[in-house]
Amino acid sequence: MDGSGGKPPGRAAGFGLIELVLALLLLGVGLLAAGPLLGTTARLTAQARSRSAAALAAQDALERLSDLCRRNPSAAELSPGDHREDALLEVRNPLEGNVLDRYQVSWSVGAIPDPRPGVTLPGKAVAVRVTTALPGGDLAEDRAVTVNMVTGCAPGAASEVAP
Q: How many CB atoms sit inside 10 A of residue 59's CB?
């Protein structure tokens, strides 16, 4: 043996220039492939945040209407039909104060359905719909979140309808 540890004479240990260029090329291709995934992840995260905020807004509206139903079951907001908030609900970034999303909150009030003929149930069925408002003020119906609630805010039990 020549004392080189079994390596051929004249050959240095480590990476050569070709190996280094090949490694950098593979790394670059991998980063280019991952680039669009970062954009998709950011977009999906923003959509999830928007839907979560809309669901919270719907839950808040249901709680307000339920409380109003307990205090004043004959309030105008609980009359049968469709209703909506006059102003758009804004969700702001707590750190920067800029508007993240705007929502239109609307709700529909109707009778509680009963499959038994001639029977009406006390209370009201309320469906709250929260729709994302686009920057121009139009509503994005495809991004709406609907939450349904049935509340027994009228006194009394189920009663038979007179024929």
A: 15
- Token code pair at residue 33: 């492939």
Please give the residue range of the domain that contains residue 48: 17-155
Instruction: Report the C-alpha gap between 65 and 108 in whole angstroms.
Output: 11
Structure token digits, residue 114? 């009963």
E strands, 19-155, are 81-84, 89-92, 99-110, 119-120, 124-133, 139-151
Give the number of other CB atoms < 10 A from CB of residue 145.
20
**pLDDT of the residue at 12:** 62
Total domains, the chain: 1
Q: Is 83 in a helix, a strand, or coil?
A: strand
**Reported pTM:** 0.65
